[in-house]
Amino acid sequence: MNIENTKAQMRKGVLEFCILSVLKIQDAYTSEILETLKEAKLLVVEGTVYPLLTRLKNDGLLLYRWEESTSGPPRKYYGLTDEGKEFLNELGSTWTELSDAVNTITNKN
């Protein structure tokens, strides 16, 4: 079994939750989102994040706006919709329950 594949699948499973959590703090453009994930050691590539942002927007969880940049082309800033905030709260509750269950199981001994 390939451990790297398993680890990648685990990261992908929480990526949506992490991106929504980043945007809970403040609106951000893709490079800022990627940098925040990188700082947290959740390494992902742009090719993974862009389609996810589009899907979240199409699902009504994100909105975006264009802002002029002093150092290049305009930037697309993403933010949470009200539905996105509710969705994130539900994911947070589910994460807590799942994390507690996993910790209970894996810490037995």
Automatic annotation (TrEMBL):
<dbReference type="InterPro" id="IPR052509">
    <property type="entry name" value="Metal_resp_DNA-bind_regulator"/>
</dbReference>
<dbReference type="InterPro" id="IPR036388">
    <property type="entry name" value="WH-like_DNA-bd_sf"/>
</dbReference>
<protein>
    <submittedName>
        <fullName>PadR family transcriptional regulator</fullName>
    </submittedName>
</protein>
<dbReference type="InterPro" id="IPR036390">
    <property type="entry name" value="WH_DNA-bd_sf"/>
</dbReference>
<dbReference type="InterPro" id="IPR005149">
    <property type="entry name" value="Tscrpt_reg_PadR_N"/>
</dbReference>
<dbReference type="Pfam" id="PF03551">
    <property type="entry name" value="PadR"/>
</dbReference>
<feature type="domain" description="Transcription regulator PadR N-terminal">
    <location>
        <begin position="19"/>
        <end position="89"/>
    </location>
</feature>
